[in-house]
Amino acid sequence: MKTIFSSVLVFTLCSFGIFANAQKISDGETVDFNGLKVSFNIMNKESIQAGGKTFDRYKVAASVKNTSDKSYNIRLTSYPQIVMDTGIVELDCMNATGAKLTSKKIQLKMKTQMINVSYSAYDKSGKSVTNILPVIGSYYFDTGDTISDDAVFIVPAGEKPEVTVRSLR
After folding, report:
1. According to the model, what pLDDT value does residue 43 have?
2. Phi and psi torsions of 77, nearest 5°
3. What pLDDT, in 10s, does the model give residues 107-123?
4. Are the CB atoms for 137 and 115 separated by under 8 Å?
5. Pick from 22, 3, 169: which is nearest to 86 by CA?
6. What is the pLDDT of residues 40-96, one digit of tens each?
7. Distance between CA atoms of residues 162 and 29, nearest Å
């Protein structure tokens, strides 16, 4: 019994630590995380029926602008290298249902820098040809850059999206 209680306590404390730095953000508001200015806007609202219940469907947009003097870079060292942590900020809709394959959050990620790599190969006739292969060289978010994305949140009827934002960097 003590083991279960200890496990639940550790999980709760870890979850609190993850969401402790989250801030609430409303429609049309901008939040600043050490020079990362995050904006959130509701673009469209409509009522829908799903499973005999009424929900409100919101199309939302989010953006982050780097107004700090710090650039964020992930340079790749070899190919193929899988990079999963390119997120800058994450907006979570606490009351989103996720119904009809809609979102519960928006993660704004670094931009991708593509590099064209030339390589030689032989075609079917045995002739040497040079081909170009686009490869991801790095991920970046420079000073002055803006990253935007949109999503659809479905929330219970009569409610507005309750959105929190947290920095991933």
Report:
1. 96
2. -100, -25
3. 999 999 999 999 999 99
4. yes
5. 169
6. 999 999 998 877 889 999 999 999 999 999 999 998 877 667 788 899 999 999 999
7. 13
The strand pairing partners of 131, in sequence order, are: 119
Distance, CA of 94 to CA of 105 (rounded, Å): 9
Spell out the residues 6+ positions from residue 1 whose beta carbon is closer than 8 angstroms to its own: none
Separation in Å, CA 53 to CA 50, 58, 60, 153, 155: 5, 16, 22, 16, 11
**Tokens representing 65?**
């602008």
DSSP letter, residue 100: G
Report d(CA 126, CA 117) in Å as an integer: 22
Length of the chain: 169
Token reading at 96: 């989103």
Residue 62, judged by CB atoms within 10 A of its CB (0-12, 13-18, 19+), counts as buried
Whether the CB-CB separation of 32 and 8 falls below 8 Å is answered with no
pLDDT digits (tens, 9 = 90+) for 50-64: 778 899 999 999 999
Q: Which of 94, 71, 91, 74 is nearest to 168 (CA)?
A: 91
What is this structure's pTM?
0.76
